[in-house]
Amino acid sequence: MPDQHAEERTAHLLELLSRQQFASIDDMQRATGASAPTIRRDLAQLEKRGLVRRVRGGASLTTSSSTLDEAFELRRKRNAREKGAIALAASKLIDPPSSLLLNDGSTTLALAEELVSQAQPLWVATSALNLGERLASVSTIEVVVIGGALRGSSFGTSGPLATAALSQITVDTTFLGCDGIDLELGPRYNSLLDAEVAAAMARQGRRVVVLADGSKVGQRSRAGSIDWSAVDVLVTNQLDPEWQEHLRDADVEVIAV
After folding, report:
1. What is the pLDDT at residue 2?
2. Residues 106, 78: contact at Cβ < 8 Å?
3. 36-48 and 4-19 are packed helices; what angle lies between their axes, rounded to 10 degrees?
4. Which residue of 2, 74, 123, 210 is most buried, as measured by CB atoms within 10 A?
5. Is the Cβ–Cβ distance between 154 and 109 less than 8 Å?
């Protein structure tokens, strides 16, 4: 029988590595709560599968497209049920025909899958090639893919070309996945480039909705993009009363699934 906890850890490790070129053992311990020996055992298994390259003090993702596809699928499976519930709740905030912005990530991909299943008339711009490809399979959804520097490990674009293109777009709702949410600081990202894209998208949405499963709660990550004052709605599956009270004071609607 597969070790569910090990699968959860490895998916979390791959998600962390997708957002930064290198992660140290300390980074991975903070992200997973596992011990250093456990992390090293997980990395050894991932290296055998060709998904990561271990280097002194940590690891990075491999660059082969086939292994990156497998790595994304593993990240996508992490908390898949929770992400699906979050996606369904988020879709109910959309009143077609609407215009949307979506950044890259496994939770926004879950939302894209939900939108595809509903096949409502929508206009969607996204910084994620895999989201764009999936959404474009439905004739009722008009899709714009934001250009920029492409990171193969997450299929997302970023950089000055991406933020310049986003500045020309105004939409009804921006949906943002994230790497963590902090009670005081707001949504957080492991990459400064991802944080820049998220901030640019937030500026162009009349409403901003953050999607975060329970594993992201309390994860400060490296970079901020927007604070809670820029967020209208948080959709999550797990939030304690202290957080709910704090966000209510910040005029953030919390939808718990």
Report:
1. 45
2. yes
3. 80
4. 210
5. no
Query: Amino acid identity of 91?
Result: S
Indicate the pTM of the whole model. Answer: 0.75
The CATH number of the domain covering residues in 80-256: 3.40.50.1360
Question: Average of pLDDT values for 137-158?
Answer: 90
Q: Are 256 and 237 in contact (CB under 8 A)?
A: yes
Tokens 């456990």 label which residue?
38
Mean residue pLDDT of the chain comes to 88
Chain centroid, CA 91 distance in Å:
16
Structural domain boundaries in the chain: 4-77, 80-256
Crossing angle, helix 36-48 and helix 25-32, to 10 degrees?
A: 100
Q: Tell me: the pLDDT tens digits for 167-183?
A: 999 999 999 999 889 99
Equal fold, 4-77 vs 80-256: no
**Assign residue 168 a region: left if phi > 0, alpha if psi is -120 to 50, beta otherwise?**
alpha
